[in-house]
Structure formats: C-alpha cells, structure tokens
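Pilot study result, target chain (632 residues):
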Amino acid sequence: MRHTSTARSGIGHLKTVLLSATALVLLSAQAAPAATSAPSAVTKGSVRLPAAADISELPVPPTAPSAAPGSCTTTVNPHRTGCVSAAWGALGSPGFFSDPRYVLLGVNFAGAPPAPDPANVYSGPQVLLVRTDGTTFSNGDGWKCLTCGVPAANRQDIDTASYTYPPPYAFPGDRRVLVGNGVLDCGRYQVTDPRCTPDRMHISPIELGGRPLGGTIGGGQTREWRLNPDGVHLGWNTAVVDNGAYDEFGSVGRLEFDRAAGRYNLTHVTLLYNDAPQYQPYVVERGNRLRFNPAGMIGEFRGWTSDGKAALGVQSYESDSVDAWATSLATGRSRPLTRHAEYTDPMFMSPDGRWLIAEEVVGSGRLDFISGMEGIPPITDQLPTTGHISGIRNNGERRFFLPYLVHAADGRGVPITPGADPAWNAGADPVWLADSTAVVWPENLVTSPACGGANPLPCPVSTEPGGRHSRVMIARFPELHPSRATPPAPISDSVPWGTPYTAGQAFPTRAHLPAGSYTLPGKSHGTADVVITADASNALITKIQVSYRDFSDNGTDVVNGTESAERGSDTTISSVTWHENLGLSGRHTGTKVTGPDGFALSPRALGNYFDATGTMTTTMDEQTWTQPGNGD
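Predicted structure:
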C-alpha cells in the first residue's frame, strides 16, 4: 500500500505552547490518524518545508489468524518466522538504528506452535530489525527478530513486556540495542550480521539502586526511558503518587556496566528539576510583577536533542495547550520546539538536528474547544491544569495525534498526512532514519469501545493483511539531503542546575507561585491582573483568577476579559473547574466562554476518560469548537 503526501501550511493557527511546571501526564501517548493525501511545498518565514513526502508501509510478519497456539501455520508464514497479533497496538514503537537501511520495531507475536517446536520462540512481545530499503534478509523476510530465542539464562531480570514500549534504540556501532529494561549485546558482531544469533546474545538488565528499571524505585514508578545519542547516558521519568498527590520527575544517569554482576548500573543520577525561583515558569519581580521564565521546562521527559546536550520535554506556553521544549543540560534554559501543538509528547529529533517529528493533536479538532484561542499566557495552567488537558487527547484506544514535520530552529510545522483516515491513529513513538531523510511511526485502527455501541463513531473494518489493527508507516522526504549520523561525544555527567539524586531518597515537593496578587505585563502592551489563592498549609494552589486588559505578547493578538481555574478539593488529584469569558481581537478574532456554572473536568480525565460538567466553547476567526460528549 502506498500513499503520496506533500507538505502544506499547518491546519488552523500556529502558536507557541509550554507545559505547567507541576504534575503532568499519567499515561503516555500512543496516538492518531494515518497517511494519505498531498499538499504542496510551503515557505514559512525563512524556512522552506519539504514537499512530496512519499508515504508507504514497512514490511512486518504475517498476521496470526487468532491467538490460539499453532494458528500461525506454514500456510500463513512459510518461513516459520512468526505471525504478529491482529490486535490494536500489536505493532509497537519503532526505534533508532544508525544504519538508515534499518529501523527497530517492538511487536507482539501470536499463534506460535507449542514448544518444543522451534517456531515457538516467535511468541509474545519481541524486538525486530526491519529493512527500510526494500531488500530482504537471506531467508527472504524483510525483518529479523533480535530477541526471539535468546536463552532465558541470557536475559535474567528482563521485563519482556517492555519490548514493545519504550522504543528500542541502537547504541553507536549497532552491536548493542536498548530493548525493554535491558541492553542486548551481540559481542563482536553487529546485530545485522548473520552470525549474530540468539545463542550469542545476552540481554543485561539496567538497574537503579539495585532494582531493575521499570519498577518502583525510591517511592516512584520509573518509566519512559530513552537512550542519549552518546550511547553512554539514559534519561527517564519517575511518576510519584503519594497521599492524593501526583507528580513526575525527569532524570538522567550514566550507564556503567558491571561485568561481574552482568548488569548496567545507573550512576551520577540527577533530577532534571530545581526548586529555585529562576527555574520556575514564572518568577516574581519587584512590585509583585510576574515574568514568564522559560527554564527547566521538562515536565515529562521525552528524549534528547540530536547532540544529546538538551532534554526534550512537554510544557504549557500558551494557556491550556502543551508543546515540546528543549532544555539545556548545562544551563537549564529552555526553548520551544513546536508551535501550538495543542498537545504533543511523542517526538524525535532528526540526527542532523534540523527537524523534529512530533505527533500533535492540533488539526484533529479534539482540543480546540479549550486550546484553540491564541495569545493567552499559561497562568491558570500553574494550578496546574496540565494533567487534565493531556487526558483529553485520547478516547481509550482512539488517539488524536497527527504526525507533523517541524523545523527545529523556529518551530514551524506542517502535517505529514493531511486528509488521512481519522480511524487510523498515529502511535507513540516516531523515529527518524539515520540519514535524516525519512520518518517512521506506527498507526492503530480505532476499536471498541472508542467506536461502536453507544459511541457515535462506527467501528471500521481493517483492510490490512489478515485484518491487522496496526501498521508501520514511513514518510520519505526526497528534498531532504542524506547525511551521516555521527554519534556525539559523551555529554557531561554533571547537570549543574539539576538536583543530585540517590535511589531511595525522597522526591522534592514541587515549588509553586505563592498566594497573592500580581501583575503580568504583556510583552507588547496591556496587563493581566492575577490573584493566586493557596490552601492553609500553602502546599497547593487552590484557585487562580486572571483579568486581562488589552493584553498582548505579540503585538497582533489582544486579549480582554476574565478567566479562572479552581480545584474541587485540597489534593492534586482533584476535579478542576474553569470559568472563561475572554475575547480576542487583532490579527485573529474570537471568544472563549464557559456556561454559567463553568466547565469542570473530573479526575477521571487524568486516565484519558473525558468526564465533564458544564460547557466550554471557543470561536476563532468565525470557526466554533465545542467539547466532545462524555466518554467520546
């Protein structure tokens, strides 16, 4: 199957966004619609975005007729090299490989015959090496399973369920691969070499403080790890839930191999967080003036820049929207990478550092009712509201991400698959080929209960081979010149602005703006008067009220009116109620209004289940968006 697409200007208005400095996303994205149609090349500012993206599918194993043992017969796969499950998400995350002729891919096999049949090794979650150049391995397959058949003695303490997510990633030299919570090592052979056979492979676990990565360490759940391009350091998140409070902290550590113990230890660990005022989204200056402060904008850690010197994360920059940020490990200063993504978290920077592939919700219509208005600073987001906003991005096994090609220097981006079938949802995470000419991402076909039954969206019938509900797409950009991916020099173990961390120590309590009355001057003109209310112990902000008077940051969009956000209880895991009565004038015109009782999202939004009372409506340039129905 092939589709043709060309780049066009982004859907709707493009703007810059950041995430609040507090607790964020409970579940990571997997996300959005697929590939078809074709815009033309576009010049935005000084950047000419590539045209004529050629989109096709990568080869994967045949589809199992069922999950029943033995259903993957020689009729289905004559090579006896396994069948993938037809289920949603069975083709998981692709991962980086330093030879552009290959990409890594997490998959779920099904239907293997019982042991001792040799084909029994093609069972459950595994990691494949997939050809991207149309050629095959010596057996005629376009893929090779790297983890299938590795002896149990060679993979002790490895969580094989994590083979499909987080994404696999090849170390420089392609002899080692990050798979699940361990490192696969083929000794002196590259994993592409026919001599790299299962009996030669060892998968060594990664541990922090003597406990395997992926478990509960120091009172938090470790998750979302990503290998630094230097092949020496690893970044990850730790989700912390304690007494009704939720938070998440990004970290970085050095991978050191303990040969005697047969494991990798994470050493020189630093939290990518600092509670000092100069690393908070807003700082208070003399006269109770607020100033927006782009520093320490990690939010949820999502990966690395191509040189490994900055961490990728998501934070709010304009109100009720979430964008990608790069934060320097050396200074803690942050710069936005996307413009008005509404929500994004799956992302990957091209090895040449020029481009970002980011899966964004903008253009799907899902979040415009709350995220669509331009020019509103992220003041109420400091409650914070970010976790609730992020929860709207999914409806169970329907995700609303669209893959965008983003120019890393100025954040200009265009959808790669405009006009795509919205029943196919882009899945986390995308990846670039090593020569920076193409991107790869998975897609999943929406399934019940996100369609059918009481849901107004009918469930589509898959036309993929064997009725698969997953596929893996590749978009090639002929106008992007191939370059060689050169591993950067190892980054420093020191993160001067971060917080040194030893496994087992308590995580910090996140700082917030103190209660009081403030003024935020617009960068161009006007003011926003802000009142922040905290609970009796000053542990949490309970309410934020803002009044705008001719407020403008960009000189072309002017905000007037009032808004507020308030907790429903004195816990971070609480309902949140918005009241909005805002007007926009200038380059864009519009309104953002709630009903008389406001608009409230229950804590179930944190689990990606839309459950609201009241109404919120946003109109921009004569186009109106209303909220989805509960459960939709």
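One observation from the pilot: The chain is about 0% helix and 40% strand. A full batch analysis is planned for the follow-on phase.
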